[in-house]
Design brief:
D-amino Acid Aminotransferase, Chain A, domain 1; D-amino Acid Aminotransferase, Chain A, domain 2; seven-stranded antiparallel β-sheet; 8 helices
Length: 290
């Protein structure tokens, strides 16, 4: 495997980051997860734009232009002969011991092009079980949810561990006020009375790119879509439920906290959205090959 580090492609065995890197020491940085399908990178420029906005918010100087970042991602995918897979882009503030960012001037940019199977295939066919976890998402006033910051995800990891201990496929996280927010790494949607509902960004969720894609597909299918404050009551009484994420794609959820959602099987509208998503990623994207 070839890894991109600060402008160079190096073998995996030689890919090294300083032990003084701020990303390692303080979780000081941002990242993106991107998917490739059939030799194309899906929604490449949306991911590039979000990482650049995250860098701007964190006051980290992006070491390449937007076009340069897109080409670095494509070059890394080409170097690894990637056709279907997962691309992880990580940006940190750079190297330096101590919290003060004034002493750090050279950001670290790492790109990995590999494989990642987030959920087993049978969960896409049969649906997964959710459990509401005790850990809450940080409020938007404390941690800006529109950036994919490295440090934020320790909370998600702990929530995932809690879901694992409960034997569930995924953890459902609430806001500090008790409203439904998101899963540990995915956005959540429900279908109720023919309408598709999802929590609004200000509840403290990331505005996922696959989330936006699912909303576009729903409108194409003439399914009404709304962002709405949801409670567990809404989830328990939903007709259908599914999660979205770059790695997860669109995956049905059929049980939460021991309660069946709808019939307890992936619902018809969820299946239509999954089929539309598969068709979209098969034909849309930036070609990896020159």
């Amino acid at each position: 495997m070839q890894i991109y580090i600060n402008g160079e492609l190096v073998p995996e065995s030689e890919a090294k980051v300083s032990v003084f890197d701020h990303g390692l020491l303080y979780g000081d940085g941002a990242f993106e997860g991107i998917r490739a399908y059939s030799g194309r990178v899906f929604r490449l420029y949306e991911h590039v734009e979000r990482l650049c906005r995250s860098a701007q918010h964190l006051a980290i100087q992006m070491p390449v232009t937007r076009d340069g970042l897109a080409e670095a991602i494509l070059s890394t995918a080409r170097a690894n002969n990637l056709r279907d897979g997962y691309i992880r882009v990580t940006l940190t503030r750079g190297v330096g011991l101590g919290l003060d960012p004034k002493k750090i001037t050279n950001p670290t940019l790492v790109i990995i092009a590999s494989q990642l199977a987030l959920y087993p295939r049978e969960m896409y066919e049969n649906g997964l079980e959710l459990v509401t976890v005790a850990l809450r998402v940080p409020p938007a006033q404390a941690l800006e949810p529109r950036i994919k910051s490295l440090g934020k995800y320790v909370n998600n990891i702990l929530a995932k561990m809690e879901a694992n201990r409960a034997g569930a496929g995924e953890g459902l996280m609430l806001s500090s006020d008790g409203y439904v927010a998101e899963a540990t790494g995915d956005n959540i949607f429900i279908l109720s009375g023919g309408e598709m509902l999802t929590p609004p960004p200000h509840v403290g969720i990331l505005e996922g790119i696959t989330r936006a894609t699912a909303m576009e597909l729903a409108r194409k299918l003439e399914i009404p879509v709304s962002e709405r404050m949801l409670t567990l009551y809404d989830i328990y009484n939903a007709d259908e439920c599914f999660l979205t994420g770059t790695a997860a794609e669109i995956i049905p959820a059929v049980k939460v906290d021991g309660r069946l959602i709808g019939t307890g099987r992936p619902g018809p509208l969820t299946k239509r959205l999954m089929a539309e998503f598969r068709a979209l990623v098969a034909e849309e994207g930036v070609p990896i090959s020159r």
